[in-house]
Design a protein that fits this description.
Blueprint lengths: L4 H29 L29 H22 L3 H9 L11 H28 L2 H4 L1 H26 L4 H25 L14 H34 L14 H25 L4 H26 L6 H34 L1 H4 L1
């Protein structure tokens, strides 16, 4: 049976959007590993310009005071809004954090790295809007796909707003963590819509011995990876503070100065590896080739992720490996979530094949 053109169009567009999100995560990792997060002290412009400067002579002599004042004023407005919404303590913590008063020196390389990060983010907006348009035919055939696409579009908008807060609070840790967590939510939404739009199931899934309890195990696995990435983001924040204090030099000293979050991150890595191995073993026993391939992909990604972590821990935090480590972590989450949705889809197919009368 030929696949309708609107289905192919949606799959292609949504897939490109997922790829673009991962490219943005990689670029964001490069921004963090090079210390370029505040390469542009304002948002959405960069030093008040749509095309950032290339030399300090293009900036006023008091540019630090100017952009610090702008950031503090923006945070004051944010604090007032949060207080009105009942988050007075959160508002106080954000506004009182000393990082907002720190202004970094102009560095053209870091400025353009951050600017390219923003251009990539703008590209995501274009892709996600195209995904919503591609999902339009589903509003009557399968409304859930259309509304998830709309929710993804809203999520990207919120991400952009959070990005401005990350800048205004000078990379405040809680803001960076929320920013990362929301990126994972966006990946999950897009993957769910893609699988939902793909009704083709492998025939072997219809008679496979799939257990409902395995779905719970996969949910737990996805949640564990989500938590691990959040903890990793906290570790990343600690490293940023250490790196800033050492002027981004003496990388061999960074790991030794990390605290409890790093210990939790390492222990969690071992736990994740064991759980992934157990889940993969169970999936290999189903005889469903599609699930087996995803299980293998999960093991490959987590293996590469652990290897990258070891390189960071024992080889003086190579800058090149930092964004790769982050991207692999988010890729692991995406593959696991895809595996979860695919397993649930196959489970329903198996149940339908065994109990057609009940489903009918």
């Amino acid at each position: 049976m030929e696949i309708p053109a609107f289905v192919r169009r949606f799959r292609t567009t949504a897939t490109l959007t997922v790829v673009a999100v991962y490219v943005l995560i990689l670029v964001g990792g490069i921004v963090r590993s090079t210390g370029s997060g505040m390469g542009c002290p304002d948002w959405p412009k960069c030093f008040g310009q749509w095309v950032p400067p290339t030399d300090i002579s293009q900036l006023p002599s008091n540019y630090k005071e100017v952009y610090t004042a702008q950031r503090v004023a923006k945070n004051e407005r944010l604090a007032k809004t949060l207080s009105k919404l009942g988050f007075a303590e959160v508002a106080a913590n954000i506004f009182a954090h000393p990082t907002q008063y720190i202004e970094t020196d102009f560095n053209p390389t870091k400025t353009w790295i951050e600017y390219l990060n923003r251009l990539t983010g703008a590209l995501i907006g274009v892709f996600i809007f195209a995904t919503v348009l591609a999902a339009w035919p589903y509003r009557r055939r399968d409304p859930a796909i259309f509304w998830v696409a709309v929710l993804s579009f809203i999520t990207v908008g919120v991400q952009g707003w959070l990005g401005s807060l990350v800048v205004s609070t000078n990379l405040l840790p809680v803001m960076v963590t929320i920013h990362m967590a929301l990126a994972l939510v966006l990946v999950a939404l897009l993957i769910w819509a893609l699988v939902r739009a793909d009704n083709a199931l492998p025939r072997e899934a219809q008679g496979a011995p799939l257990a409902p309890g395995m779905t719970i195990g996969l949910v737990v696995l996805v949640l564990l990876t989500f938590v691990q990435i959040v903890v990793g983001t906290q570790v990343r924040e600690d490293i940023d503070m250490i790196a800033f204090g050492l002027n981004y030099l003496h990388r061999e000293q960074w790991i030794a100065q990390l605290g409890g979050a790093f210990t939790v991150h390492r222990v969690f890595s071992a736990l994740l590896l064991l759980v992934n191995l157990y889940v993969a073993l169970k999936l290999y026993q189903t005889g469903v080739a599609a699930l087996e391939r995803l299980a293998t992909a999960t093991l490959v990604v987590i293996g590469l992720e652990i290897l990258a972590g070891l390189l960071l821990a024992y080889f003086a935090m190579p800058a090149l490996v930092q964004p790769i480590h982050l991207t692999l972590g988010t890729l692991l989450f995406g593959v696991q979530f895809l595996l979860l949705v695919r397993y649930w889809q196959a489970l329903k197919a198996s149940h339908t094949a065994r109990f057609p009368a009940v489903v009918a």
